[in-house]
Amino acid sequence: MDSSLDHRGVAYMRSLYVCSDGQYYSDVQIWERLERDIWHVCCWDSETGGEWVETVGGELLHLTPVTEEQLPQGISTEPVDCGHVVVNSQHPYGCRSEL
Q1: Which residues of 62-89 are buried (b: 16+ CB within 10 A; e: fewer)?
Q2: Which residue has the higher pLDDT, 4 or 82?
Q3: Closest CA to 62 of 25, 13, 28
Q4: In the chain, what are the domain boundaries?
Q5: pTM of the full predicted structure?
Q6: Phi, psi for residue 89 in degrees, rounded to 5
């Protein structure tokens, strides 16, 4: 986790995760899915930071925290108003792990 400031100078935590679906997500992208009822939190491990979420389709996903240095080549982060999002530059459209 990295603490950063947004464009207003407000601190936020920047957390990145690798998911069992093979994608990488930022805390912003995870919260978007939770707030839109696309994912529902099942449980988390406070020692490792790992989380388990269930999709609306009933699939159980495991999210494992990673550092920015652990992101594979072609996967990076991009700043947005409320934090950072993960971007896959190897995707033909620079896909952001969209909803």
Answers
A1: ebeebeeeebeeebbbeeeeebbbbbbe
A2: 82
A3: 25
A4: 2-88
A5: 0.75
A6: -75, -10
